[in-house]
Specification:
By secondary structure, the chain is an alpha/beta fold. It is built from 25 helices and 17 strands. Helix 5 runs antiparallel to helix 6, helix 7 runs antiparallel to helix 8 and helix 14 packs across helix 15. The structure holds ligand C2E and magnesium ion (2 copies).
Length: 638
């Protein structure tokens, strides 16, 4: 009997199975489907040997029984094709019902194929020119190959049609698997005494295993915990099954190990990892350096386990107590507040990045409102992207009145976005998010360019104007190429820099101060002037004014308002005005809404007033009409 090749196949598969079973695995559907292919192939090889034996001993076993065995082997080939098709479908039909539907359809097809195989006649060859060969042929074999071909064609069709849904490595591996089968069956077809189809199946399994299904690919090498790829796959599967679960995130910020000597840190890390590996009812993952994720498939047990884990951490590690090695905790009791693995990872990243909230509390529960915030943020980012792409960024201008010249002498440029329904979105909605996402650099440059275009179109002096104030975000101030970019834009539009006044804020002057000062110097040398915006908010500090080479101080609306409401604030503001004037700087008072407020500011000697008393921020054309009207009124007045 020539069964050496088949025996080699069996040995190969047993070795693979040994390795597979001895590795830590996570319960993934793809791995279950892989086991399906594995066992189908294994059974197929075994039946190959059995059928060769049956042909050999057909006299003892009787002819019909030998044929029945040989046909059963053919049916197992269909089983392999079926299992491969289902393996592919795991990626495509993530919804359980859809997957089951596909399974039933293909199972029925296989059953129909099996009936055909048993019903059709089968012949076999056991001696060829005196050489011992064992192979079968005839209609039963053709039904098998025909049916297998249908499945293979379906696999190729799905590989191409659903390419975006199938993991690219799985696609490659399945193509390779198919290729091996086709080559093996071609060889067997040409050299009928070389029975290598089933062995080809074993090689195919090895390819799938090595390229994709080796459980080791889901492990983090340094800790033995599952890795971030496994977290993604596993949570994706749970979401697809609409199963709720809990996630605990344990983060060791830089400060967590501060008092632990460097060589002890790894020892502690290993102790922590060993502990995490033993937490019951949980899957621990390592997501990033010093970030561990623990998934609890049973939300009912999660709270209790989380308490236990925290108690364990509080008791300390080695000679270090719980206060020395102190992580930050994030707990998501119900992951179903989001509906996708990608959004879950984004949520975790988002909260980590938002470090102010994260590190302030060492235990943060993530509830629905965090998700709403993220959705809102994503919507705003989309709105910004759309607006920038479709040129829906607009600049409004708010006039600034000079008390000495008694006319409008400047204006502040204030950005607006028009949404797709034509509604105006104010900067309060998007500036923070533009800063967080880094889009502020592009947005700021777009605003600056629009102001330059405006100055080119409407020469300021014609309208009695001296300059336009433009806001700079903290992020822009810390951007090294800011000065260069802005000078390029001014040169491009041939703008005299005296028409430009850039507003910086106090927060900008603390963060990235060196870069800011560099940018300011370069721009001032070019001829641009600066204002300090938002004076009187937050931790205002008169030292900033001394430090910063600005010409104008802008009093925030909150400061001017409190002047009218609060006796103490009155004194603070009067002292500030006194000092600022002493430094020969100008003041713009923002948020002036009434005649009384205006009068008071004028009496205090404030040189410039901005507020609804004169006008709200206006779109370009309206602003020009406003300027023309006020020029006309001035002329009429004499
Ligand atoms: P800001 O630079 O302090 O601008 C003054 C804000 O006060 C403007 O709000 C203006 O409409 C409002 N305002 C002025 N006078 C009055 C008043 O009498 N009463 C009331 N209730 N409000 C008044 P807006 O346009 O919503 O801008 C808000 C903030 O958004 C700005 O505060 C600025 O920090 C930021 N921003 C606006 N445009 C830009 C921009 O192009 N770039 C950057 N980075 N930030 C901008
Ligand atoms: Mg401003
Ligand atoms: Mg302001």
């Amino acid at each position: 009997m020539h069964i050496q090749i088949q025996c080699c196949g069996i040995v190969l598969m047993l070795v693979l199975f040994y390795f597979y079973m001895h590795q830590k695995r996570i319960s993934l559907d793809t791995q279950k489907a892989f086991l399906g292919v594995f066992w189908a192939t294994f059974f197929c090889i075994v039946m190959d040997i059995v059928s060769i034996g049956a042909i050999q001993y057909r006299h003892v076993l009787t002819e019909p029984f030998a044929k029945f065995v040989a046909k059963t082997y053919l049916v197992t080939l269909l089983g392999v094709a079926l299992s491969a098709l289902l393996y592919m479908c795991v990626d495509i039909y993530t919804n359980k019902e859809d997957y089951q539907k596909q399974t039933y359809v293909y199972l029925l097809m296989t059953l129909a194929g099996a009936v055909g195989v048993y019903a059709a006649p089968l012949h076999y060859q056991y001696m060829n020119n005196g050489v011992d060969v064992k192979y079968t042929y005839g209609p039963s074999v053709y039904v098998t190959y025909g049916m297998a071909l249908v499945f293979f064609v379906r696999i190729v069709y799905l590989l191409r049609k659903e390419r975006t849904k199938i993991n690219s490595r799985r696609r490659e591996a399945v193509y390779l698997w198919l290729f091996i089968w086709i080559v093996a069956s071609q060889i067997q077809f040409m050299y009928t005494n070389l029975l290598i189809v089933a062995y080809g199946g074993a090689i195919g399994i090895m390819v799938l295993y090595l390229k994709l299904e080796n459980p080791e690919t889901n492990l983090d090498r340094s800790t033995g915990l599952f890795n971030s790829g496994a977290f993604h796959q596993y949570t994706k599967q749970l979401f697809a099954k609409k199963k709720d679960f809990s996630v605990l995130v344990i983060v060791f910020e830089n400060t967590a190990y501060q008092h632990v000597s460097l060589n002890k840190r790894d020892v502690i890390r290993m102790q922590i990892v060993e502990y995490l590996l033993k937490v019951p009812d949980a899957y621990p993952f390592k997501n990033a350096e010093d970030e561990y994720l623990i998934v609890f498939p049973d939300t009912g047990l999660a709270e209790k386990r989380v308490e236990e884990i925290r108690t364990r951490f509080a008791s300390g590690w080695g000679e270090y107590n719980g206060d020395t090695v102190k992580p930050c905790w994030l707990f998501l009791p119900h992951a179903n507040i989001v509906n996708q693995a990608e959004i879950l990872s984004y949520l975790i990243r988002y909260i980590r990045r938002d470090e102010s909230t994260f590190t302030e509390k060492d235990f943060l529960r993530i509830e629905k409102d965090s998700v709403d915030k993220i959705h809102h943020e994503r919507e705003v980012v989309q709105l910004l992207l759309d607006a920038m792409e479709k040129d829906r960024v607009e600049v409004f201008y708010q006039p600034i009145f000079s008390t000495s010249e008694h006319c409008i002498t400047s204006a502040e440029a204030l950005v607006r976005i028009r949404d797709k329904d034509g509604k105006i979105v104010p900067p309060g909605v998007f500036i923070d998010i533009a800063e967080k996402s880094g889009m502020i650099l592009k947005l700021g440059a777009a605003v600056f360019e629009k102001v330059c275009m405006f100055i080119t179109k409407y020469p300021l002096e014609t309208y009695g104007m001296q300059y336009i104030e433009i806001n700079l975000s903290v992020i822009q101030c810390g951007y090294e190429k800011l000065a260069r970019d802005y000078i390029d834009i001014m040169e491009n539009y041939k703008i005299n820099p005296k028409y430009i006044n850039l507003e910086i804020t106090e927060s900008a002057s603390t963060n990235a101060k060196k870069t800011l000062l560099g940018n300011m110097e370069e721009l001032m040398n070019y001829g641009v002037r600066f204002s300090l915006d938002d004076f009187g908010t937050g931790q205002s500090n008169l030292n900033y004014i001394v430090d910063m080479p600005v010409d104008i101080i802008k009093f925030d609306r909150s400061m001017t308002n409190s002047y009218f409401e609060n006796g103490k604030a009155k004194h603070v503001m009067e002292a500030a005005i006194h000092m600022i004037h002493g430094m020969n700087l100008e003041i713009v008072s923002e948020g002036i809404e009434t005649k009384e407020q205006y009068q008071t500011m004028e009496d205090l000697g404030i040189s410039h007033i901005q507020g609804y008393y004169f006008s709200k921020p206006l779109p370009e054309e309206e602003f020009i009409r406003f300027l023309e009207d006020s020029l006309r009124r001035n002329v009429d007045a004499g």
